[in-house]
Specification:
Number of strands: 7
Shape: rod-shaped
Strand order of the largest sheet: 4-5-6-7
Helix content: 25-40%
CATH topology of the largest domain: Ribosomal Protein S8, Chain: A, domain 1
Oligomer: single chain
CATH architecture of the largest domain: 2-Layer Sandwich
Radius of gyration: 30 Å
Strand content: 25-35%
Distance between the termini: 84 Å
Number of helices: 4
Structural class: alpha+beta
């Protein structure tokens, strides 16, 4: 009887130290990971393999919002998920799209606003001159959750929209 009690206490101690309950089921913690540059929905797709939803007795779980993801999982898995999300939640570089509406005709003077493309236009087309009729610049912020701005210029007059 004394041996059985000692063995049972040893098993219980090992289970508790290893992060499991007395029946070998892992102890689960809940942690919310706030994201600055990516959405929680994107992160949920990324960390889904780390969530053991089919574990008997203690299934893992997660819920995502736009700014965060909450995970119920073992401490070891939460640490792995934290490292993955730390690497994933990096700023996405933004870009600017510039659209130019160029009029082709028999203009004698070169328009300085399109000086960098006139030579290529002359190689492609047979017009005598080109001028900038209008342009639009659309900044696309990578990973932005806010609205995008748009500005345009038509016949030399700026008109932010």
């Amino acid at each position: 009887m004394k041996r059985l009690t000692t063995a049972l206490l040893f098993t219980l101690t090992v289970a508790l130290v290893s992060g499991c309950d007395a029946f070998g089921t892992p102890k689960l913690d809940v942690r919310t990971f706030n994201l600055e540059h990516r959405s929680g929905y994107e992160a949920a797709d990324l960390i889904e393999p780390y969530i053991f939803e089919d574990r008997e007795g203690a299934p893992g779980d997660m819920n995502a919002t736009m700014e965060a993801i909450t995970v119920r999982e073992s401490r070891d898995n939460l640490e792995k998920i934290g490292r993955v999300l730390e690497e994933f939640d990096k700023p996405i570089p933004g870009i600017r799209l510039r659209f130019q509406l160029i009029e082709a005709d028999s203009f004698q003077e070169r328009d300085p606003a399109i000086a960098d493309v006139v030579d290529e236009l002359e190689n492609l087309f047979q017009f005598e001159g080109y001028r900038l009729l209008g342009e639009a610049v659309v900044p696309v912020a990578g990973g932005s959750r806010g609205g995008q701005s748009f500005s345009q210029r038509f016949l030399g007059v700026s008109n932010p929209i």
